Amino acid sequence: MIVRYGLRLVALTYLALLLIIPVGMIVAHTFSGGLAPVWTALTDPDAIKALGLTLKIAIIVVPLNTLFGITMALVMVRREFRGKALLSALIDLPFAVSPVIVGFTLILVYGMNGWFGEFFINQGYPIIFSTPGMVLATMFASLPFVCREVIPVLREIGTEQEQAAATLGARAHQTFRRITLPAIRWGIVYGVVLTTARAIGEYGAVAVVSGNVIGQTQTLTLRVSQEYQNFDHIAAYTAALELAVIALVTLFLMNLFHPRKDH
Amino acid sequence: MTTVALPRRRASGAALPSVAPGVAITYLSVVVLLPLSALLWESHKGGLDAFWQAVTAPDAVAALKLTLGAALLVALINAVFGTLIAWVLVRDSFIGKGLANSLIDLPFALPTVVAGLTLLTLYGPNSPIGLNITYTRKAVVLALMFETLPFVIRSVQPVLLELDREMEEAAASLGARGHVIFRRVVLPNLLPAILSGMALAFARAVGEYGSVVMLSGNVPFATEVASVHIYSQIQSDYVTGATAMSVVLLSISLVVLLSISALHRWSSKHDR
Lengths: 263, 272
Prior knowledge:
- The complex is a heterodimer.
- Chain A is mostly helical.
- Chain A has two domains: 1-33; 35-257, MetI-like (MetI-like fold, Orthogonal Bundle), CATH 1.10.3720.10.
- Chain A is built from 13 helices and no strands.
- In chain A, α3 packs parallel to α8 (144-157) and α9 (160-167) runs antiparallel to α10.
- Chain A is globular, with a radius of gyration of 22 Å.
- The two termini of chain A are 23 Å apart.
- Chain B is an all-alpha fold.
């Protein structure tokens, strides 16, 4: 009994000191000066632009990575070909790459002295220090999520129902729409939630390629660190709180769509 | 015996428009493969000497040592506390357990820079408990502890749930004490999961940037980790240095990823 209470105490203290108290304090700190400065920081034109850019990047990245993830999962599970293990490792790679390296490799391709940098600059579409570079960085960093969530679901449902549908004369696209898609939809939704959270929260990769021009290439995450360095703590904490609220909603959706067996 | 020849239509895989796999692989190549090839190309451009010189520069070595040391320490801390928390979440029951369980994933959902600011609020210069660890290596470890919290817990939890309690009951009925049962019966069963969680935590810790950059002060030779080192090399246009360190970090992550999949193969083989 003593052991049990002891373990519970240690576990909860660890979680409290590392997770719960710090995150709670962000709320307290944001509102330390009352509601008015938070409202000012929230409605600051630069803050609104930062939120807008963050959402714009997510709106471009999430659908593309979702389509990619579903397609790639179908290819990985339902087709046999050489080099599958290699492809699988390549899909997982973004999980293991430091975000700073993601940004750096993009500079090597699209930067001033990069492979295609001059070409895009001459066309009038610079990639680095502008939105396209940030979109590419976010795509890279959030690429694997949908694929990784859909693959195990596809494996589990097997092909029997699809074969039955095919035997009964269903066309391939009908089978996909009426059998496969409904079966994997929660996997997709969970993957989309994770992709969105990562796209909105990406910092390191975006920091490297953005140049952090306030009002132009500043996302919410970049605003947090920028305003903190400028000693405008209320602005930093307000942006952080916006992101924390998004994270909590994400967490809620994660628990909703991914009910763990241990509850 | 007669067999009916079914129309050999490939289910679902064929549901994709025939161009879809090609488009997906092209997308993967543009988004991931092209940038990584640029990195490898760049690392060969200067020749092996320049690469070696950049990797063995004193500040690079210091950053790499700090990163690997801190990542290893954090993996070990996670092994102990992650297993403990997973145990409490599976075997204990108390009010608020469901909430505690869902909060475990918060570090995955919370942007790294917000995590850094969060820790800065409690353990920074304006700490309400008078505990300022910024500009020390403790800050690096703390930031990494936050970011890697879920890995061991989430990898041990399902194994612990599936674990047959009859083994433990049998050991107890034969007179084994609690800690003996844990060490001789439970721990060997959890070990592959603990190791794979540790490896994931280590890989994540090696590349971590956002939370560390906020909390550690980034002093070269003292609290500058590898990814912050790369960032400052990029800022000062020292491409060779940034490239060399990136290649080293990438190789470490790859080795860790490959050992995790080897570990999975090994442990599933031993299950049968």
